[in-house]
Every structure is written in structure tokens, then in C-alpha cells.
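Apologies for my clumsy wording, but are you able to produce some protein sequence, whichever is easiest, and the C-alpha cells describing how it folds?
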Amino acid sequence: MNLLVYISFNGWMTRNGKHALIGIYIYYLNQGGHIVNYLIALLKQIGRHSGINYIEVVRNILDSFNISKEWLSYFIIDNALNNNTALNTLAVKYSFIKEYRRTRCACYVLNLVA
């Protein structure tokens, strides 16, 4: 059985504006067909929530969990420009067509609500 993982990431700023945080989530179906989800990282972002900063954090986390391109399914992210930049870089690194691997706002919002 091939494991396919779905990745979601998002950034937040603390109320006082001093700290930028990024959360990275992973979702997959286990052998019983049940959805499993984990928060695999909640890190302090160095600098602003730019696409370049996002990609450094996301790429390092995926590498540290040994997530290969064969495992990647969809990315569930919103329409922000920084996410576009991050996904462009991930598409090159993992050799996929980003338009076929991105689920945009509607599913992202539902994910946050859930």
C-alpha cells in the first residue's frame, strides 16, 4: 500500500506582532481507511511570513520526516502570495505540477473550522 500524505501549512502572528509562527499539518488514511492527522511542526518563523521563509521551514520539516515525492498528494493552503511562492519551490523540488496538487480556500477554510 502506498502512503499518500496531504500537507497543510499556515502562518500566524502573535498579537503584539513580535513573533511569527508557522504550523505544518499532515493528513493520511491509515490501513483501516481512517483519517489520521498530526501537527508535525509549530515553529517560530524567522522574519516575516514570506514565501521564501515559508519554503525554508516547510522543506526542512518534510526532509526531516523523510517525506518523498512519491508520498505527496495535495497541499491544502490558502490563496496568499507567500503560499504561491512556497508551492512553486516545492513543485520544482518534488517534481510535480502545482495546479494539480493544490486545494485552495474552500477546503482550507473547512479544514480550519474542523
Notes: The chain has one domain: 5-113. The chain has a mean pLDDT of 83. The chain is about 30% helix and 30% strand.
